[in-house]
Amino acid sequence: MTDGIRERIFIPVRVPLYKGLFGIRTLLVNKNKLNDLKFLTSIEDLKKVTFTQGSEWPDTQILKSNGFSIYELQKKEDMIASLQTGKALLYPRSIAEINYEMEENATAELAILPNIYLYYPTAIYFFVQRTKEGKHLADRLEFGLNEAINDGTFDQLFNKSMSKIITKAELDNKRMIKLNNLILPELTPINESKYWFIKE
Amino acid sequence: MTNRIILTIFFIFLIITTNSNGQISQVYYFSPTEELDEIKLYNHSLLKLALEKSKKEYGEFELHNENNTSVSQRDALKLLKEKKSYM
Fold first, then answer.
1. 0.95 surpassed by complex ipTM
2. Domain residues for A14?
């Protein structure tokens, strides 16, 4: 995920490789509490409960800046455990990783909240060395990625690789709760609709 | 750093070499160890696609996963910075 520091150290190729999928966050919960949590339908409801996230994750800053309470932990297994103990009720994960995480923790009683998901704009880029040669390569990659977007081959690869994940997320059956991402670098091409799965 | 999201990036550097056919861009990248195989494959495929699509304007290329290994994000950042010195 891009951020200001990384963009200062390296050269970002500002074409979002995942079309913003990592900002689509479905909510992992303790399966036994699923019925109690279905009342969560608005941003105000979500501000009344505790989330868990990694203490160093940019997502933690994003959620905090949107007014959410975060139980911060270091290890993912502890975050899963916090759902079991009730110290946290919601564990947002991107749709690109949530299925893997559920498989990895098959013995934990996990479920995905069926009625809502969070979305904030975020981008994952190729990062290149900040050198003369790096600039040349970054220009080349930006050119090549845009060529692939324009001739449809980027979307072919994206759809082939991501369609199962997207289908499984059942986004059409969930309400999107849109959040602000205050740490998104200014130069993120947020208005270039061709780059994003969820259009602004 | 254990956040899979943060790790979903490739760090790339470039060395230009020449052979009898002209310039060849040797493109090296590091793929973070912690990443899912599917994500690594997608990133690799996109990188290759971008290089292929720019071949006409920028020339031939060879794509290498540095040392054919994956490294942690922390090591990848360190390695990428160090490469500045020998390029």
1. no
2. 4-195
Interchain pair B53, A145: CB under 8 A = yes
- How many Cβ contacts (< 8 angstroms) between chains A and B? 122
Q: CA torsion sign, A75 to A10 to B37 to A198? A: positive
The side-by-side arrangement of strands in the sheet containing B11-19 is: A11-13, A126-128, B11-19, B22-32, B60-71
Q: Where does the pLDDT of residue B66 fall: very low under 50, low under 70, confident under 90, or very high at 90 and above?
A: low
**pLDDT tens column, B48-63:** 999 999 999 988 888 8
Backbone angles phi, psi at A153, to 5 degrees: -75, -30
**Contact: B10, A126; criterion CB under 8 Å:** yes
User: Considering CB atoms only, which of B9, B38, B51 is closest to A127?
Assistant: B9
Within a domain: A22 = yes
Q: Evaluate the CA torsion angle A78, A84, A89, A93 in order and state its sign.
A: positive
**Has residue A180 been placed in a domain?**
yes
Number of compact structural domains in chain B:
1
**Which chain B residues have a beta carbon less than 8 Å from that of A148?**
49-50, 53
Q: Which residue has the tokens 């608005």?
A: A42
Q: Domain range holding B42?
A: 4-86
**For residue A200, is it within any domain?**
no
Please give the tally of structural domains in chain A. Answer: 1
> pLDDT of A94-152, one tens digit each?
998 888 888 888 888 999 999 999 999 999 888 887 888 788 889 999 999 999 999 99
What pLDDT is recorded for position A108? 86
Å between A125 CA and nearest CA of chain B: 6
Q: Decide if A88 contacts A82 (C-beta within 8 A).
A: yes
d(CA A15, CA A20): 10
Residue A163 lies in a domain: yes
